[in-house]
Write a structure and sequence with these properties.
Layout: E1 13-17, E2 23-25, H1 28-31, H2 36-41, E3 43-47, E4 53-57, H3 58-70, H4 72-75, H5 78-86, E5 88-91, E6 98-100, H6 103-108, E7 115-121, E8 124-129, H7 130-156
Antiparallel strand pairs: 1-7, 2-6, 3-4, 3-5, 4-8, 7-8
Length: 158
């Protein structure tokens, strides 16, 4: 297991069951890169840009808030700030590493099946409905394969 760090880097993909109450286990592999302090604080969830949920540690979310507040356009826009903060949920992890994803957030992210996919995405984790994610991957596969091949040639010299 990797050593927990202050600035975790998330990667990989894990599928977990989610129950009717929205309770789901955060994959151990993702929790393993967090310090015990970060785990004790829980997570911050908000609707992602796409049909998913963004999951941040509190320290990482603090950086997002600092960035939001540093933008001239948003810092003085009370309606934007109200909408932004209204859609943020702080959740605690229990002793087994489970969190509860609020129902409103599950609906907005299209989570309707009994499985969700956790995708590490650098400084955050994205939580997707497993069947929706699979469908979207199939739709974008040709375009993605072409882009991936271009990037692989540039990055790896392949």
């Amino acid at each position: 297991m990797p050593e927990p760090v202050d600035q975790p880097f998330f990667y990989g993909c894990n599928t977990h069951r989610i129950n009717a109450k929205g309770q789901v286990a955060v994959p151990a592999r993702l929790r393993s890169v967090l310090s015990s302090e970060a785990l004790a604080q829980g997570f911050v969830l908000l609707r992602g840009e796409e049909t998913c949920i963004y999951c941040y540690t509190h320290a990482q979310f603090r950086k997002i808030v600092e960035q939001v507040m540093s933008e001239d356009e948003t810092r003085t826009d009370a309606a934007f700030l109200r909408d932004f903060f209204e859609q943020v949920y702080a959740v605690d992890a229990d002793a087994q590493g489970r969190i509860v994803i609020p129902g409103e957030l599950r609906r907005e992210a299209g989570i309707s099946s009994t499985e969700v996919v956790f995708i590490g995405h650098n400084d955050r984790v994205e939580i997707w409905d497993a069947s929706l994610r699979k469908k979207l991957r199939k739709q974008s596969k040709p375009e993605y394969d072409e882009k991936r091949a271009r990037l692989a040639r540039r990055i790896f010299g392949a």
